[in-house]
């Protein structure tokens, strides 16, 4: 035998050389067998099944909660701008005041107090708390369905 000829292959009766184990048969060994391919969906004309994991309910709950949070946020922002005596001629302040009045129209003049800042705090704070409670309560109810 010369240096350029390969050695004849020896029968394998022990562990693999250099610490390597022989490859396991498919489906055996440290990894699970591959999952079967999903059934193909019909291209047209067939009805697709929607997942029943509640993702639509979660999205609806998130939207309801966000609407309540946004309404309460505008009401709270108007209270803060009023208490800090913001310039009412500013377009941003006008927008926040108009939006807060739109969200809280139903609660205006529930409290008729002589102190102006307390009247604003209560007449806009009450709807803010109600919007938060309703938004989060309805969202929690929707998530439990």
What does this 3D model show about the protein?
The chain contains 3 helices and no strands. It has helices spanning 55-83, 91-103, 116-144.
- Global outline: elongated
Number of helices in the DSSP assignment = 3
**Rg over alpha carbons:** 35 Å
- Summing up helix and strand content along with how strands pair, one would put the structural category as mainly alpha
Largest beta-sheet characterization: none
**Percentage beta strand:** under 5%
Poorly predicted regions are: none
**Could you give the order of the helices and strands?**
HHH
Tally the beta strands: 0
Distance between the termini: 80 Å
Average pLDDT for all residues: 82
Helicity, as a percent range: 40-55%
Layout of secondary structure:
Elements lengths: L54 H29 L7 H13 L12 H29 L1
Helix pairs in contact: 1-2, 1-3
Q: What attributes characterize this protein structure?
A:
about 50% helix; mainly alpha; single chain; about 140 residues
């Amino acid at each position: 035998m010369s240096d350029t000829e390969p050695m004849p292959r020896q029968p394998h009766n022990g562990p693999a050389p250099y610490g390597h184990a022989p490859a396991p048969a498919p489906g055996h060994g440290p990894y699970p067998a591959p999952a079967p391919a999903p059934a193909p969906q019909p291209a047209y004309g067939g009805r697709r099944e929607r997942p029943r994991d509640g993702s639509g309910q979660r999205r609806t709950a998130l939207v309801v909660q966000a609407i309540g949070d946004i309404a309460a946020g505008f009401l709270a922002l108007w209270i803060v701008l009023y208490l800090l005596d913001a310039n009412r001629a500013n377009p941003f302040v006008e927008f926040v005041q108009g939006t807060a009045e739109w969200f809280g129209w139903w609660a205006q003049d529930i409290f008729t107090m002589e102190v102006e800042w307390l009247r604003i705090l209560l007449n806009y704070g009450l709807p803010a708390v109600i919007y938060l409670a309703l938004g989060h309560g309805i969202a929690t109810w929707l998530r439990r369905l």
